[in-house]
């Protein structure tokens, strides 16, 4: 298998895996009311179909990335996508809501295996200077899936019921899982031995020392072609560190999800304390262990840390804004879900269009200027939406969402490219896990922040001071919307300041220079090696 063909297959698998995960979340939101009616479930039980999945994914992403670094991203991808498809089929056949919740947790485990592998495979297959466009295509596909998900989910639920949205993933998951296994089998096939070099007529066998002939023949023939497979991380999996990180993330996610509904209670306070304690214990453990879950070359890099901060702040600001905007469109302007979706459509369109453009922009202007500009657009979009009122027109609303889409789509591609490009290949899975963790924690943090801010501001008008009040009058919400969105704009501006630490150009290594690769092969040689490169993405 040629390197170019391998790259196309890996890109196809990476994009498809990312789209399956993105579609799953968007279509489920549409299907939840029908699921609740059909299974006679409570509102809390239905919420746990999403919360259980989120907790499982967020707690395991980094450890799953470590597994990919050690045992091969392609293996983890195949296991993750096949398991994701199998649990999707099982959920579609589930007899009760308890089964749905349990299977969604299992699906989250497989999703955690799948998501870092989609980035790890790209990093191991493409040379760093050619990662921009594959990541842009992946982001465009995610944006398209996010835009099509509600429409597709609504059509499936209307014609075949809520179970159909889970059967949607089965066929593409099986196809991509089978493709990954086929590619891996081709990668494991032994490469043909190189033909021996011709001996000049003037040379004779007696001109070689006895030991030199055998040593020369044992060189390339016995050792085989040099591959990047030697760049596996040394040491163990750091199970104690994985458990501490999982405990910290489970406590954090559970607290953030519960906070908007219950406010600060004993349970949420204990969850916050547990998250802080586990995080401190994790940091202490990582500093002392010989084989940390998150290597110092990753977490100690200013470049990677800044890119993660950008993604966290951007996703928190965007999804918090979308939460507030949904209430504004439906409760204040009294639009139905379809009309609300059409108002938000410019965001999805600009996400799809800005992703490939960002690959060109960062080559010309560098990651720093591109990301700072994109975060500025995101901030301006939130500020524009904060000025809306009952008399706002569709073009005014659309302009705000256009800025959001242009900014967020560019940020996703550029910041992700910085993370994937600057991390050593041996730790690409861990870096992908950190990127996906930021993209899962950020939206949860943004929605929780927006809900708490609206709840604290709205009761002055409604007279309802309960911390978890789920509804507000239109006037109360409108009075709270401005301050809430201004706070989220400040969060986005913080991300713009973090973006100043990103490299000036795509060729700048910053503080994340890669060590020499094992076996004499460096990352930049990935485009020059033969099909033996497949060994690195097993």
Automatic annotation (TrEMBL):
It is found in: Cell membrane. InterPro entries: MFS, MFS_dom, MFS_trans_sf. Residues 200-231, 504-538 are annotated as: Disordered. GO terms for cellular component: plasma membrane. The chain crosses the membrane at residues 45-64, 76-95, 135-158, 164-183, 263-283, 304-329, 341-361, 370-388, 394-420, 441-460, 480-500. PROSITE patterns: MFS. SUPFAM superfamilies: MFS general substrate transporter. GO terms for molecular function: transmembrane transporter activity. Residues 202-213, 220-231 have a biased composition (Low complexity). Its main location: membrane. It is a multi-pass membrane protein. One of its GO terms (biological process) is response to antibiotic. Keywords: Antibiotic resistance, Membrane, Transmembrane, Transmembrane helix. Residues 521-538 have a biased composition (Basic and acidic residues). Residues 10-507 form the Major facilitator superfamily (MFS) profile domain. This is MFS transporter.
């Amino acid at each position: 298998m040629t390197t170019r063909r391998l790259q196309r297959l890996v890109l196809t698998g990476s994009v498809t895996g990312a789209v399956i995960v993105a579609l799953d979340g968007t279509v489920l939101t549409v299907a939840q009311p029908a699921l609740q009616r059909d299974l006679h479930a409570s509102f809390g039980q239905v919420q746990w179909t999403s919360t259980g999945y989120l907790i499982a994914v967020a707690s395991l992403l980094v450890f799953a990335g470590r597994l990919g670094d050690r045992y091969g991203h392609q293996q983890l991808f195949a296991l993750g996508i096949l398991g994701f498809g199998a649990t999707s089929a099982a959920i579609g056949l589930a007899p009760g809501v308890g089964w749905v919740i349990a299977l969604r947790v299992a699906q989250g485990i497989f999703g955690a295996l799948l998501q870092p592998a989609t980035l790890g495979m790209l990093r191991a297959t493409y040379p760093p200077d050619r990662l921009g466009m594959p990541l842009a295509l992946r982001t465009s596909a995610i944006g398209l899936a996010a835009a099509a998900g509600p429409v597709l989910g609504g059509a499936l639920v209307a014609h075949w019921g809520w179970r159909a949205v889970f059967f949607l993933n089965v066929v593409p998951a099986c196809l991509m899982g089978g493709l990954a296994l086929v590619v891996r089998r081709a990668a494991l096939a032994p490469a043909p031995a190189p033909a021996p070099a011709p001996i000049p007529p003037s040379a004779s066998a007696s001109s070689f020392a006895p030991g030199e002939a055998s040593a020369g023949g044992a060189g390339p023939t016995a050792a085989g072609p040099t591959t990047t497979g030697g760049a596996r991380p040394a040491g163990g999996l750091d199970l104690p560190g994985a458990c501490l990180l999982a405990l910290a993330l489970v406590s954090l996610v559970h607290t953030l999800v519960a906070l908007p509904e219950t406010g600060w209670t004993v349970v949420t306070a204990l969850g916050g304390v547990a998250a802080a304690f586990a995080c401190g214990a994790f940091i202490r453990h990582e500093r002392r262990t010989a084989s940390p879950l998150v290597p110092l070359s990753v977490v100690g890099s200013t470049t990677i840390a800044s890119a993660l901060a950008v993604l966290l702040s951007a996703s928190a600001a965007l999804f918090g804004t979308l939460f507030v905007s949904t209430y504004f469109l439906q409760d204040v302007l009294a639009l139905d879900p379809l009309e609300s979706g059409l108002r938000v459509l410019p965001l999805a369109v600009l996400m799809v269009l800005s992703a490939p453009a960002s690959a060109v922009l960062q080559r010309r202007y560098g990651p720093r200027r591109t990301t700072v500009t994109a975060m500025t657009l995101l901030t301006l979009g939130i500020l524009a939406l904060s000025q809306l009122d009952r008399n706002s027109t569709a073009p005014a609303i659309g302009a705000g969402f256009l800025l959001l889409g242009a900014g967020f789509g560019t940020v996703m591609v550029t910041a992700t490219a910085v993370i994937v490009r600057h991390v050593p290949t041996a730790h690409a899975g861990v870096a992908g896990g950190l990127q996906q963790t930021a993209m899962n924690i950020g939206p949860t943090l943004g929605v929780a922040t927006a809900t708490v801010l609206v709840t604290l501001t709205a009761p002055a008008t409604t007279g309802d001071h309960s911390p978890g009040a789920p509804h507000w009058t239109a006037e109360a919400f409108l009075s709270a919307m401005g301050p809430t969105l201004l706070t989220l704009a400040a969060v986005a501006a913080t991300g713009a300041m973090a973006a100043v630490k990103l490299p000036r150009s795509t060729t700048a290594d910053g503080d994340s220079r890669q060590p020499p690769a094992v076996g004499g092969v460096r990352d930049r040689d990935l485009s020059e090696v033969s099909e033996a490169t497949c060994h690195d993405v097993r």
